[in-house]
Amino acid sequence: MQPATNHIHLLDPKANYDAFLTLAASLLLEATPPDAIQWQDSESGAGSLFDPTRTPEDLADLPRLETHTSSIAQRLGRKGKLTAHHADPERWDLLYRIAYRLSHGRERNLLSDILDHDTRKLETLAHHVSRDMHKMKAFVRFQRVRGASDEQYVAWHRPDHRIMRLIAPFFVGRFGAMHWTIFTPHESATWDGQSLTFGEGVPADQVNEHDQVEELWKTYYAHIFNPARIKINAMVKEMPKRYWSTLPEAQIIEDLLKDAPARVRRMIEAQSTSAGATPFLPPRNVPLTVLAEEAEACAGCPLSEMATHTVFGEGPPNARIMLIGEQPGDEEDRAARPFVGPAGQLLNQALAAANLSRDDLYITNAVKHFKYLPKGSMRMHRRASPKEIRACKPWLDREIESIAPDTIILLGATAGQSIFGAGYRVHQSRGQRLTHPNIRASIYPTIRPAKILRAPKHEQPQMLTEFIQDLRNATT
Question: For residue 370, which of 15, 70, 196, 307 is within the disulfide window of CB 3.0 to 4.6 Å?
């Protein structure tokens, strides 16, 4: 029997994902389409419970429900769980729609299709939550409670999403010897050395204890401060000012930065006066890990002041195939890894279709810093100039020298211009095997994955098919 349409189903945001999986499984067993139900957080105060006669406990007795619930959880995977903790009120509709398409739409490869709107939305929301967790790990500062009978510590943090239950096990593992409580506006978590419990959230002014721990942290931060790696605009992006009140080191940043420009100039002047990245290169034949570490301090062009991170290449040091992209995007800049955003997801899909494993490849970019134009809270991608490409080329040369691949695949115009100069054109070289007098590898040009994502939707499938064929041709 089909349930009536247009029911509103409410979920408790504090313990929601398991309830969602159970109730979604029951709806899927009854083939309830996504447009027949609305999902809302119970805090909204709107609507009524879907099918009031059926509770999650009752649903646990339905035939095949437990197996189906487990199947949905497995299909949605970690990204589904992360998305469930996002603040987006439409996340439940998205998760159920995807679960329905996987179950009843027979779209088994849906979550590997980065061109699909729902898949891309899931990737985006999951990334937001993952990044919020990363910020919480970085910005939480415990302070000892004065007058407590034992060593009790507290911290207060303001995450963007409801991540407390996801992140609390991390703090148990890291600070298991302490007794602590972490407060957020939505929820609190307490570890007593034996068990982890959750409670109500509280405002910041109720956990305003301070201690010598704060002074110790300031001293440590001052010692590790490196002016060559401080980018003020990027620091504010990564460490929004709303977190500063809970970070002791934020109180001394201004003093530490006063002399930073002069100190950086002195560091650069002490090195070679050669253009671009050359003064920042380590000696030849150092391991790739050392090369990547040294690149972090590169200030060989103005892009280093804009970007959050230097995004170096990654992959096996003996990889036979090397992929060179153009430059990092917004998500790559924040994660400090190449090809992790939508274009990276599309690349992963194309590699799999071409029977290539990303784990076997070395993937990098011609330009190691994100170039963008600020537009409100957005950062709009801008193409690197020939001068910026030349400035960054010493790093790419060292990567090629260290990896010594058999095949290099150029993804886009900037990658090609870095190797062959400003006259390189993708449309003239695509599909050909090229050589370079200073590179022993066979070089194969193709388009960049982002070009497919930015093309009209009706053109994307054919462009993706051709891109996959390019990858196959380059490696056969």
Answer: 307
Cα-Cα end-to-end distance for the chain:
55
Strand partners, 10: 40
Whether pLDDT at 13 is above 60: no
The CB density around residue 43, as the number of other CB atoms within 10 Å, is 12
The pLDDT of residue 249 is above 80: no
- CA 67, distance to chain mean position in Å, is 32
Give the C-alpha separation, 122 to 415, whole Å. Answer: 30
pLDDT tens column, 285-307: 888 988 998 888 888 888 888 88
Asked if 142 contacts 152 with a C-beta cutoff of 8 angstroms, the reply is: no
Structure tokens at 242: 């709303």
Q: Does residue 266 carry a pLDDT above 70?
A: no
User: Residue ranges per domain, the chain?
Assistant: 7-132, 140-206, 212-269, 278-474
The DSSP secondary structure of 102-115, one letter per residue, reads HHTS--TTGGG-TT
Is-contact 418 445, C-beta < 8 A? no
Q: Output 187-194 pairs: Cβ under 8 A, ≥24 positions apart.
A: 187/14, 187/162, 188/164, 189/164, 189/165
> Which of 10-24, 49-63, 217-231, 442-456: highest mean pLDDT?
442-456
Q: What is the pLDDT of residue 60?
A: 45
Distance CA(439)–CA(442), nearest Å, equals: 8
Residue by residue, DSSP assigns 144-177 as EPTT-SS-EEEEE---SS--HHHHHHHHHHHSTT
Instruction: Say if residue 338 is exposed, middle or buried (CB neighbours under 10 Å; 0-12, 13-18, 19+).
Output: buried
CATH class (in words) of the domain with range 278-474: alpha beta
Query: Phi and psi (nearest 5°) for 254?
Result: -60, -45
Q: Which residues share a beta bridge with 410?
A: 324, 445
CA dihedral 104, 107, 113, 115 (to 10 degrees): -70
CB-CB contact of 190 with 181 (8 Å): yes
Structure confidence by residue, pLDDT tens digits, 365-401: 999 999 998 887 788 889 999 999 999 999 999 999 9
Residues 6+ apart with CB under 8 A from 382: 371, 372, 373
